[in-house]
């Protein structure tokens, strides 16, 4: 087992916050990543009511528009790769067709198989289908919905992928919900709760002021000053 800067419990703690809040926290813990490491296009979630998912990325590239042109990774190897061991996993799959989502990798069968292997969900620029019979609780953030799987097949696994501007490598930490997804640097995991608490206390002061009687621009300036004094 690889030595890590965080525990499974540390990842579990991050589930209590939505992905925008995690992004806010990262602005303090990892300011150099303020404008990178997250999805930048709208995505289609399986269910907006599902809680956030946090796990280690298991990455792959797929195509669907044409039949395989040569040898492809055995599906069994993919299942071995994504299966959760010491930490929960999230499948992060980039569709490299010129029209991503031409064929769906995800549906009733794959969602149930992956859930059974301990995978929490998937983040993909591709499509998914079988909306009424997907595995309960298995969150998919996809590029779109589509009816067919066409010739969908894996072409590479355990590689870098790009999901709507979010570059992801094997074992990266992914936090995702219906807003989108973000990569959490390993060295930020333990520092995020304190950063989020600080931001929440600053925001509460401003929001409370905005809801008070007689709120105006002068009071807003006062709130901003007080918020800046919170450490």
CATH architecture annotation of the largest domain: 3-Layer(bba) Sandwich
Q: Summarize the helix and strand pattern as letters.
A: HHEEHEHEEEEEEEEEHH
Instruction: Work out the helix count.
Output: 6
- According to DSSP, the number of beta strands is 12
Low-confidence stretches: none
Main sheet characteristics: 8 strands, mixed
Straight-line distance between termini: 37 Å
Overall CATH class of the largest domain: Alpha Beta
Give the mean pLDDT: 96
The helix content is: 25-40%
Strand percentage: 15-25%
How many structurally independent domains? Answer: 2
CATH fold category name of the largest domain: Glucose Oxidase, domain 1
The CATH superfamily name of the largest domain is Ribonuclease E inhibitor RraA/RraA-like
Rg of Cα set: 20 Å
Shape descriptor: elongated
Structural class: alpha/beta
Give a structural overview.
By secondary structure, the protein is an alpha/beta fold. The chain has helices at residues 8-14, 19-29, 75-82, 108-116, 192-210, 217-228; strands at 44-45, 53-63, 89-95, 119-124, 127-128, 139-142, 144-145, 153-157, 161-163, 166-168, 173-177, 180-184. The strands form 3 sheets. Strands 1, 2, 3, 4, 6, 8, 11 and 12 form an 8-stranded mixed β-sheet that branches. The chain has a two-stranded parallel ribbon with strand order 5-7.
What topology does this entry show?
Layout: H1 8-14, H2 19-29, E1 44-45, E2 53-63, H3 75-82, E3 89-95, H4 108-116, E4 119-124, E5 127-128, E6 139-142, E7 144-145, E8 153-157, E9 161-163, E10 166-168, E11 173-177, E12 180-184, H5 192-210, H6 217-228
Parallel strand pairs: 2-3, 3-4, 4-6, 5-7
Antiparallel strand pairs: 1-6, 2-8, 2-11, 9-10, 11-12
